[in-house]
Amino acid sequence: MGLLVVEAAQQSGSLITARLALEQNREVFAIPGSIHNPLARGCNALIRQGAKLVETAEDVFEELGQYNQSSIESQSQLDQTTLDLEHQNLLKLIAYSPTSVDTLVQESGWSVEMISSILLVLELQGYIASAAGGSYYRI
């Protein structure tokens, strides 16, 4: 239904994917980043061109017309035990203050791709939130 761009350099495959998503009449979402981060320039450019700025998972649900307050509330009541072991282990490594992806890679020994996938799930389920500079903190 849509495409969420988390990080993208000014010339990247993510921007090509975003263009293709627009050509298929899909919504394009982008997470803004620091003006000093070269991997945020593509996202910031997408937002300037009309992509939906995303700060929370609810921003995506709202735009896609699937936002339902009761489902968000029920998700927030989920116990950590409903997560599989990998998700639980990564969640334990995320502090209540911003924790960088690099720190998570070092502490877990997992690939950036695997951590990014788990972070997305944890954020959509309301366990964590993203912070400036590509960091995440526990809610």
Architecture overview:
This protein has helices at 13-23, 41-48, 57-63, 69-76, 85-93, 101-108, 112-124; strands at 2-5, 27-30, 52-53, 99-100, 128-131, 135-138. It is an alpha/beta fold and 139 residues long. 46% of the residues lie in helices and 14% in strands. β5 (128-131) and β6 form a beta hairpin. It has seven helices and six strands, in the order βαβαβαααβααββ. It has a three-stranded parallel β-sheet, sandwiched between helices. Strands 4-6-5 form a three-stranded antiparallel β-sheet. It folds into two domains: 2-63, NAD(P)-binding Rossmann-like Domain (Rossmann fold), CATH 3.40.50; 74-138, Winged helix-like DNA-binding domain superfamily/Winged helix DNA-binding domain (Arc Repressor Mutant, subunit A, Orthogonal Bundle), CATH 1.10.10.
What percentage of the residues does DSSP assign to strands (E)?
Answer: 5-15%
Overall helicity: 40-55%
Largest beta sheet: strand ordering: 1-2-3
Cα distance, first to last residue?
Answer: 27 Å
Number of strands: 6
Derived structural class:
alpha/beta
What is the total number of structural domains? 2
Outline:
It is built from seven helices and six strands, in the order E-H-E-H-E-H-H-H-E-H-H-E-E.
What's the SSE blueprint?
Blueprint: E1 2-5, H1 13-23, E2 27-30, H2 41-48, E3 52-53, H3 57-63, H4 69-76, H5 85-93, E4 99-100, H6 101-108, H7 112-124, E5 128-131, E6 135-138
Parallel strand pairs: 1-2, 2-3
Antiparallel strand pairs: 4-6, 5-6
Helix pairs in contact: 5-7
